[in-house]
Specification:
Blueprint (H helix, E strand, L loop, with lengths): L1 H4 L1 H31 L7 H5 L2 H27 L19 H4 L11 H5 L1 H8 L1 H31 L7 H5 L2 H27 L19 H4 L1
Helix pairs in contact: 4-8, 4-10
Length: 223
């Protein structure tokens, strides 16, 4: 029963690990093929997954994913989309009252302790999801830039060109090409989900309104 109650998290954790391992194996084969074609030496799996070549590819995907959720969480505080289950109802914009958010003296007996505490602890906990998502995004972006600089400089040396500093890499076309090609796809995916969910349905999914709900209503209105 306990596993069933956490099935969604477990399933995506398993999918993540399977995909990450698959990426590492496929990436290793591609890397070693490139090495052999250029007369270089091959690497072991462990050496590859700890290399900048692998880390930069992983980090640039992580930072774009967490940026997506960071912006979605932030935007849905103040912006609404009529008819989308991803949005609050028009007129409900903003942070909400303490009573609506079950904070401080309005907390329930089973509310988290920091929601009951008031003061800075409740303020921090009230924004904890956004803070953690933003922190992971920034750390992943930093890791991408550091690993990307190593990979970029290796290519520069291979072509007998000058290496660049970390700051120079941050303003380079290579860094922003890697970054923006991921950002644009995340923005498209989120925007499409918000818009499609107004008119399209998936029976049984919490990400969809009930099948018979009118287009102009949100999921909350349709209950």
């Amino acid at each position: 029963m306990r596993l069933r109650e956490h099935g969604l998290s477990i399933a995506f954790a398993a999918l993540f690990l399977a995909a990450l391992i698959g990426q590492s194996v496929a990436g290793l084969f591609q890397f070693n093929q490139d090495q052999l074609s250029h007369g270089g030496s091959t690497e072991s799996w462990l050496a590859f997954v700890t290399s900048s070549d692998f880390v930069v590819d992983v980090a640039e995907n992580w930072q774009s994913e967490y940026l997506q959720f960071f912006l979605l969480i932030l935007a849905t505080i103040w912006l609404v989309q009529k008819g989308s289950p991803e949005s609050k109802k028009p007129g409900d914009e903003g942070l909400g009252t303490d009573e609506e958010q079950l904070v401080g003296r309005h907390a329930r007996p089973d509310s988290p302790s920091w929601a009951k505490a008031g003061g800075w602890r409740s303020a921090l906990y009230s924004n904890s999801l956004l803070i953690v998502m933003g922190a992971i995004f920034l750390l992943s972006w930093l890791l991408q830039s550091l690993a990307g600089q190593v990979v970029y400089n290796a290519e520069q040396v291979e072509h007998h060109e000058a290496m660049v500093s970390w700051v120079q890499y941050l303003v380079s076309a290579d860094f922003w090409n890697r970054t923006l090609q991921n950002w644009q796809s995340e923005f498209l995916a989120v925007g499409s989900m918000v818009a499609f969910s107004i008119y399209l349905r998936q029976r049984g999914s919490s990400e969809s309104k009930p099948v018979g709900a009118p287009h102009h209503t949100s999921a909350v209105d349709a209950e």
